[in-house]
Amino acid sequence: MPLNRPQKKPQPPSDLGKIKSIVAVASCKGGVGKSTIAAMIAYELAKDGHKVGLLDADIFGPSIPTLFGIHKTHIYLDDQKRIIPYEHDSLKIMSFGFLTGDSPAIMRGPIVSNYIQQLIHQTAWGELDYLFIDMPPGTGDIQLTITQTARLTGAIIVTTPHTLSLVDVAKGILMFEKVDVPIIGLVENMSYFECDGCHKQHDIFGTGSKHLADRFGIDIIQKLPIVTNDKKSIFDIFTKEMLESLRNHTLHALDNKEGSKKEIPNVSFDAQNISLSWPDKTTLKIENRTLRLSCGCALCMDEITGKAILKAEGIPDDIRAEEISPLGNYAISIKWSDGHSSGIYPYRHIRSLVQSST
Fold first, then answer.
1. For residue 231, what pLDDT band results from cuts at 50, 70 and 90?
2. Distance CA 156, CA 351 (A)
3. Cβ-based neighbours of 120, under 8 Å, separated by 6 or more
4. Beta bridge partners of 331
């Protein structure tokens, strides 16, 4: 008599299908203020009347409970055995920190991935306009689990202008590109310090984020200053005008991302040129070698100084594209005949090259 296979325990239904937009807030680099930015965006949108959820996906270092001052809370389940999120001024919040408190999470990768999936699918989010996911640092199993588990609308990247932050953040952007998650925009935290006496803005960490935005063809949503954190709440450290600007620019970037999905050009290439043609009949044509020489990847440009290290004499005159892939709706990646394939070429960068050559 054959043995009966053990029956899998039925899982409660997921609410992800009821969420209009799922947005990852990521940096790849720790300590740049990613969780703070995620919390502020979500809270500001919730105050504005939107239905918003915030998921703290950092299992090993959850920050959201501390940011909202939620130090002791009980976890309840609904009649379908789903986790009921904590509500803070109409913002729905879920964090692994609610389960562990001050205790460290000591566990291996596969278990962490299971917990992440449970937090995403087995939380009773209900109908939401936006679910923001505060991503953990890095580009490993947890990040891939999230991108494969949730239908991400896109990612907001948080960085500081410091070179070391930018190097790691660039890796995060490339990770999202490889898993087909479009970049919504860049938030530059600790962008400048404003002097109390003269009110002049000082770029203490430099202006490297502009190079990062140009390299990947993404927009800077907001620049936030360095401020002293002597307030009772994180929502008091920035001015009302700054928070409103962050909220409005985020909504604008999300709307633009949704509205421009169809604005992807048709790309063709031959032995001499690469041509791009948009639905509105706009066309661009650029020589292969000119575009190859303009590559801004880490192999062709010094990440510290931003100066080109690619030598023109090292590029064959007959260089040509072998494969071209669109990245979101703002850039293309190219596999060249010399074996180079790590470059990203934003449409606005190509347009600038064409205009400068005419």
1. low
2. 25
3. 14, 16, 55, 57, 133, 146, 149, 150
4. 327, 346
**304-315 b/e (C-beta count within 10 Å ≥ 16 → b):** eebeeebeeeeb
Amino acid identity of 219? Answer: D
**Do the bridges between strand 128-134 and strand 154-159 make them parallel or antiparallel, or are there none, so unpaired?**
unpaired
- Per residue in 40-50, pLDDT (tens digit) is 999 999 999 99
Triad 253, 256, 260: Cα angle to 5°: 145
Higher pLDDT: 338 or 199? It is 338
185 and 282 co-located in one domain: no
Confidence of residue 1 (pLDDT cuts 50, 70, 90): very low
The Cα 44–Cα 38 span in angstroms is 10
The whole-angstrom separation of Cα 349 and Cα 358 is 15
Q: How many separate domains does the chain show?
A: 2
pLDDT digits (tens, 9 = 90+) for 100-153: 666 555 556 667 778 888 888 999 999 999 999 999 887 777 888 888 888 899
pTM of this structure: 0.81
| Domain residue limits at 52 | 16-259
- Report the length, in residues, of the chain: 358
Q: Domain of 298: which CATH number?
A: 3.30.2020.30
Element (H, E) at 276: strand 273-277
Which residue is it, tokens 């190509």?
Answer: 350
Give the N- to C-terminal CA distance of the chain in Å, as an integer: 81
The residue assigned the tokens 């290290």 is 309
Which of 72, 99, 90, 70 is closest to 233 using CA atoms? 70
If asked whether residues 99 and 41 sit together in one domain, one would say yes
In this predicted structure, what is the pLDDT of residue 102?
Answer: 63
Q: Which pLDDT value is given to residue 124?
A: 93
Among candidate residues 301, 320, 321, the one with its CA nearest the CA of residue 311: 301
Going by pLDDT thresholds of 50, 70 and 90, the confidence category of residue 7 is very low
Q: What angle do CA 24, 156, 306 make, to 5 degrees?
A: 135
pLDDT attached to residue 101:
60
Which of the 8 DSSP states describes residue 206?
Answer: -
CA distance 109 to 125: 25
Q: Hey, what amino acid is at 340?
A: H
